[in-house]
Amino acid sequence: MTAISCPDYGIPNHMLRPNLVGLHNVSVRHYRALAFESSCDDTCVALLEKRSPTGPVEILAQKKETVNSVTTGGIVPLRAFHFHQKNISRIVTELGNEAGFGPSSPPDLICATRGPGMVGSLTASLQFAKGLAYAWDRPLVGTHHMLGHLLTPKISGSANAIDEPNPLVPQYPYLSLLVSGGHTMLVLSSSVHSHEVLVDTIDIAAGDALDKCARALGLSGNMTGRLLEQLVEEIPPEKKQLFHLIAADGTSTQFPLKLSQPLKSAKHQRIPETVLFSFASFLSSISRYVQETEMTIAQRQYAAYKLQQILFEHIVDRISVAFEKDALESVRRLSRVRDFVCSGGVGANRALRKKLCAVRSPNPLQFYFPDIKLCTDNAAMIGNAGMEIFEQLRLKSNLGILPIQKWPMEDLLAVDGWEKVSDEEFKKVTGWTQNVDSIKS
Ligand code: AMP
Ligand code: ZN
Question: DSSP code of 154?
Fold first, then answer.
């Protein structure tokens, strides 16, 4: 994980501030979790380990395969469902051979994404996980996908952080920008089970907009948003400077692109009642530009550059407005926030990471950027979140749980299927008699 404190971009967090927990020697034994994520087009399985109640979660092994959507121009739900169904048992077997688990030495806990996501895709790994939990007599945790993204910085992801006794992790209450192919939201978290979505998208997600715009600009592949970033990064610096100076207001004869930040025109209130993101207009502007302009290399580069610039400025502006709005309210919920997580596939984008430092907040913010490979959907984040639910909340899921297509973060515990974990079962799984909270107190 990279954690930075603006403007010291790139300085690891553990070099900037020590962590408060000093109880890493209480380990009794380690425990392992097998985790599944298939909410969209990735089939991903991971094996995780925790060596002590206060230590970080470590990734022992992870395997991911993705549906090829190049020819279909987007994800087709039935194709994704078949892909997961077909490949999941082979991927688990391969991971088991590599990491040394299987029917004769099963992991201690099973975690799988329960929602939100595409129902067919979710069903494939949730059913598989339920089968393993039954066959191996292990507890199951049906995890919230966005909680996975939100807790990702707590995974020990970088070589020097793994053996750090006290790796720095975001402290509650903290804010997260979860920005991916299916979601774009700003979330205020006050505990593992208490989350409030402060800003949500009114239409499509940022990743969806970037993917579709990139395809309109002629890029093809899986994750065209990532290809768009590559295209922008390859533009020579002097050309980027020139692009930066040209306003995208449609008046340039050379680059007549018209692109503006949504929800900012005179007809909108500067501080609206509900702060929102909006990304659909980026797609209509880029599509119109592509139709009306002969696409030279320079035109494509300019459009890609301006798209990233203005879309990310919109994100930063809405977050800043959320802070301004909070400052005007009687109960200032953001006044204690010091830590800020940026996660989800688009969170891997370097230009977005740099721009976020420009968020206008009353307090200096400490930014947490998970490792780029952990930003996009992965099973490790689901295992990490499942372990946190099991340990901190002492909850597991019953084997009758169904996938949940739409599952608001606020309703994490308000859905059916949660069951209390007894002290005896907690000890059987973890080997510990007490969890972090009881050790701290
Ligand atoms: P997720 O839904 O979290 O798996 O993230 C997938 C989304 O993130 C897709 O829309 C990708 O195009 C987008 N994405 C992944 N990497 C990048 C990147 N470096 N820059 C912009 N978008 C990205
Ligand atoms: Zn995701």
Answer: G
Pairing outcome for strands 366-369 and 2-5 = antiparallel
Residue with tokens 């306003």, as numbered in its chain: 247
- pTM of whole model > 0.70? yes
pLDDT of residue 157: 58
Distance 223 CA to ligand 1 centre (A): 6
* pLDDT (average), residues 367-390: 95
Report pLDDT digits (tens) over 422-433. 999 999 999 998
Reading the block at residue 265, the tokens are: 């025109």
Write the residue with the smallest CA distance to atom 16 of ligand 1: 226
CA-nearest residue for atom 15, ligand 1, is 345
Query: 427: buried, middle or exposed (CB in 10 Å: 19+, 13-18, 0-12)?
Result: middle
Q: Kindly list the protein residues whose Cβ atom lies closer than 6 A to any atom of ligand 1.
A: 180-182, 207, 210-211, 223-226, 229, 344-346, 348-349, 376-377
For residue 148, the CA-to-ligand 2 centroid distance in Å is 8
**Strand pairing class (140-144; 109-115):** parallel
The mean pLDDT of 26-40, rounded to a whole number, is 85
